[in-house]
UniProtKB/TrEMBL annotation:
GO molecular function, one term: L-lactate dehydrogenase (NAD+) activity
GO biological process, one term: tricarboxylic acid cycle
Domain Lactate/malate dehydrogenase C-terminal residues, every copy: 164-320
Record InterPro entries: L-lactate/malate_DH, Lactate/malate_DH_C, Lactate/malate_DH_N, Lactate_DH/Glyco_Ohase_4_C, NAD(P)-bd_dom_sf
Active-site residues, Swiss-Prot/TrEMBL: H190
Family: Belongs to the LDH/MDH superfamily.
Enzyme Commission (EC) number: 1.1.1.37
Positions of the Lactate/malate dehydrogenase N-terminal domain: 2-158
Reactions accelerated catalytically: (S)-malate + NAD(+) = oxaloacetate + NADH + H(+)
Enzyme class: oxidoreductase
Keyword line: NAD, Oxidoreductase, Tricarboxylic acid cycle
Binding site for NAD(+): G7, G8, A9, S10, T11, I12, G13, D33, N112, V134, T135, N136
Name of the protein in question: malate dehydrogenase
Length: 322
């Protein structure tokens, strides 16, 4: 598998490449960036790091039958010749240093639209290729790419798995269990209108009830914590570790032929959950070509209402920019 990360010299892009090199060393990665020098430096450094991953105890157990992949740098002009199996879009305009409040994601829409439009022009020379959008605001930009490129909608995915990890952290504290044992799907918008699907919470695979009194606090924690991280560490760092781990999970799932259990990514809807002309986080299973299936779960009345609010918020912005 060959993954091309657009914006590969960025904090998130380079961290994704590093994570893939450690966990899935058979995957080829191209760091595509207008900053050729920085992209080359990251690719070279990560390649050297791969030596230690490979020679640590059990390091070669992750290597597939095709052997080790390569990490290399490239420019946007190289995209038609790269022939990637997956595109990861992470290019973004620099954020102001004070972009540490909960409205920061929505404020990025105007700054990043022009970048999306330029990259879409670069991608038109490619055959339809799965595209995972990591740049904020994710749902709006995922749909923008779909509108500009016109590829089959299953090719478009927006990253939203960080919320799942954050919700697990908050729920685990209330239940007195380890966060890694908790699963709470997160639908809706990657932002204020995130929808915790409490009706499907599991601990070690078994259904559990999150007390009603805790649910608003869980949702607030998921909304607040990335900005608290930015305040304490600086906006240029962002939530690089959880994002790179989640993006790598998507990459590894596609490389393996798909995910057995659905997880939530943003993808264009065409009637699912009663919505269309929008991209929202919904449960999906993947294959090597992108979204193989959108699952329509039965939601509680509160979950359904919150999902409608997410649709209305995202759709309002799309109507403004169309």
């Amino acid at each position: 598998m060959h993954v091309a990360i657009i914006g590969g010299a960025s904090t998130i892009g380079s961290t994704v490449a590093y994570t893939v090199a450690g966990l899935a060393p058979s995957i080829d990665v191209s760091l595509v960036d207008i900053d050729e020098e920085a992209a080359w430096a990251h690719a070279t450094d990560i390649s050297h790091a791969g030596y230690h991953f490979a020679n640590a105890p059990d390091g070669r157990s992750r290597v597939g039958p095709d052997g080790f992949g390569e990490v290399r740098s490239a420019t946007p002009e190289d995209l038609p010749d790269l022939d990637p199996d997956l595109l990861v879009f992470n290019a973004a305009a620099p954020q102001p240093e004070d972009a540490t409040d909960r409205g920061a994601r929505e404020a990025e829409l105007e700054r990043n639209l022009a970048i999306v439009d330029d990259v879409a022009a670069d991608l038109r020379g490619l055959d339809p290729t799965p595209l995972l959008v990591v740049t904020n605001p994710i749902d709006r930009l995922t749909y923008r790419f779909r509108s500009l490129l016109g590829w089959p909608r299953e090719k478009f995915m927006g990253y939203s798995l960080s919320e799942t990890a954050r919700a697990a952290d908050a729920i685990a504290e209330g239940l007195g269990v380890h966060r890694n044992a908790v699963h709470c799907p997160m639908m809706g918008e990657h932002g204020e209108n995130v929808v915790p699907v409490f009706s499907r919470v599991r601990v070690d695979g078994e259904p559990v009830e999150v007390p009603e009194s805790d649910r608003a606090d869980v949702r607030e924690y998921v909304r607040d914590v990335p900005f608290e991280i930015a305040k304490r560490r600086g906006v240029r760092e962002t939530s690089r570790w959880v994002t790179s781990a989640g993006v790598t999970r998507v990459i590894r799932s596609m490389a393996a032929g798909g995910n057995e259990e659905p997880f939530c990514l943003s993808t264009p809807l065409a009637g699912e959950y009663g919505f269309e002309d929008v991209a929202l986080g919904v449960p999906v299973t993947l294959d090597g070509d992108g979204v193989a299936e959108i699952h329509e779960w039965e939601l509680s009345a509160e979950e359904g209402s919150q999902l409608t609010e997410a649709y209305e918020a995202v759709r309002a912005d799309l109507e403004r920019i169309e």
